[in-house]
Amino acid sequence: MADLFLRGAALALGMAAVPALASSPPLPGYTGPGSLPSVRAAAEAEDAAARGVEVVEPTAPPIRIDQFGFPTTGPLPAAPGPSRAWTIVPSLTVQAVATDNLTNSGNRKSGDVFTTISPGVLVSADTARLQGVLNYRPSARFHANNTDQDRFDQNFNGQALVSIVPGTLFLDMRGSSSIQSVNGGFAPESSVVTDDRDRLQTTSFQISPYIVHRFGDTATMQVGYAYQWVDQSGDDPVLALQPDRFGSGVRGGRAAQSFTAHEGYAVVRTGPNFGRLALEGRLQATAYDGDGVLDGAYRRLGSVEARYAILRGVSVLVMGGYEQQRFRGTPGIDISEPIWAVGARFDFSESSRMTVRYGRRNGFNSLSFDASVAVGGRTRVSGRYAETLSTGALQAADLLSTTSLDQFGNPIDLSTGLPVVRPLSGSFLGTQNNLARIKTASAAIVQTWPRDTFALTLTREEQTPVSVAAGGSSFGQRGTSAGFTWSHALTPRTSAAAFLQYGRSSSGLRGDGTIMSASLSFVHALRENTTATLQLASRRNEFSGGNGTSTQNFILIGLRQTF
Predict the structure, then answer these.
(1) Please, are residues 349 and 374 in contact by the beta-carbon 8 Å criterion?
(2) How far is CA 385 from CA 292, 311, 504, in A?
């Protein structure tokens, strides 16, 4: 169990190239802040592939996706062993953490010891009418010295697909909630928000009824409606005032943002009767009611994309359409113009593919790249690059639509089925509620052995403000981070994981600086349902502005019992 825990952990960290879900709660086996997440199913699948064993996953009814290739089946893999219609696993986790710098301050260090109590429940369903998983783990934290920092956090991930009329009418429900830092400065894989004044709780829900109709082997149509709700809250999180190095407009201001959205969509895709040619038509309209730039905002899109297989495994892509987008603020955004894209897709195998596109969308020309390639039976290389217009709250909502969950309630990428980790924008860089042009790039290489897993990741993100509402935050920021993870099974019941990360960022909020972090974790299975964790971690921030230089060290001891 511990072996699978840490090997799956490093595998998850290595997949930084897939999009990340900002609000992902810990899963079974995660026993402390900064501990590496476990994706047991992914590790077992890698081992099976290495041995040449075919892994058969159960299928599910079609679910919503936001990419060419609709419709598909939801990747909710079954747990090892006999399948059960309903599985309910309660748990209780108790952690004790000692730190020498609770608020991560450069000049006013205050050590403290705090205890976190986290009851939890993991619920999964796989019946004829319902497929889904919910991982709910709220946590209460109590401090020995700084009692004003006591708090209660919500952490959950859940998705469910209800077949109201089998094969025709479905109800898709999704939700998540987690804590992130307002001011950033945290390594994505080891962020621990210890300062309550730097805490931002992001909660998002989405419910979507839709109809699917198949016209034999000619085409498939999906028509539906989606209601979205996103709320960001904290101790009235306010960003510090700093010189604006890249952007212009108001500096500082509230980072939180809340909104509701109503979306209608219709998608038609051709079937096998068209042979090498695949066509997809899409209509999508979203109206926002929210704070700042989202007050009265909307997005409308109509497009047709064609994919033609010129060779086995090689296809060319052509897309054309029209978009309308409007956002409030200064100067405000009003886009009404044609969109287009050309590209190619390479299918090397069932689990290895690469897609490259270049075109115009969101009012600018950009390149997009997405690849995940298995090299042999033990190595996987992945990479991704994309540009978009978004805010912190919009990113949380969008990721609900582009990720699914495994049987432990952990987010996985719909296009690859691989685990995802927290996004760079949700931890390494500061949080903003302005509309920004966001460029994200990531690459990873993961190698898995029977007792060891190695993962090397590289991430890059740039945010350039394009519209700011009164009282909003506006500052350009960019960051690059490299991380290395090594997990090793010491014994059948004990595993260890080492993590190193180095990053550099430039921000109108914090200035220029570096972030370094390291951790060493040990997980030991005391009994079948009881695990103990020991973790040592350190983080050092060096910035030219804001908090200057600060060092924060942790010692964590945790105990987790499942029932």
Answers:
(1) yes
(2) 28, 25, 19
The rounded distance, in Å, linking the Cα atoms of 485 and 457 is 9
- Residue 10: strand, helix, or coil: helix
Residue 561 burial by CB count (10 A; 0-12/13-18/19+): exposed, middle or buried?
middle
Helices (H), 290-418: 392-402
Phi-psi domain of 512 (left: phi exceeds 0; alpha: psi -120 through 50; beta: other):
beta
Which tens digits make up the pLDDT trace of 47-80? 333 333 333 333 333 444 344 433 333 433 333 3
Instruction: State the burial class of residue 341 (Cβ atoms within 10 Å of its Cβ: 0-12, 13-18, 19+).
Output: buried
Phi first, then psi, for residue 285 (nearest 5°) are -140, 130
Q: Residue written as tokens 């198949």?
A: 214
| Distance in angstroms (rounded) separating the CA atoms of residues 202 and 423 | 13
**Four-point Cα dihedral 390, 396, 397, 398, nearest 10:** 60
What is the DSSP secondary structure assignment for residue 53, as one 8-state letter?
A: P
Decide if 522 contacts 496 (C-beta within 8 A): yes
Mean pLDDT of the region 230-256: 50
The pTM assigned to this predicted structure is 0.79
Report the run of H or E that residue 46 belongs to, with start and end.
helix 40-50
For the residues of 75-115, what is the DSSP string, one character each? --PPPSSS--SEEEEEEEEEEEEEES-TT--SS----EEEE
Task: Please compute, for residue 499, the number of CA atoms within 13 A of its CA located in the half-sphere on the CB side.
Answer: 32
Tally of residues, the chain: 563
Q: What sign does the dihedral 50-52-53-59 (CA atoms) show?
A: positive
* Type and span of the H or E element at 45: helix 40-50
pLDDT digits (tens, 9 = 90+) for 387-411: 999 988 888 887 777 777 776 777 7
The Cα 438–Cα 468 span in angstroms is 15
CA distance 125 to 129: 10
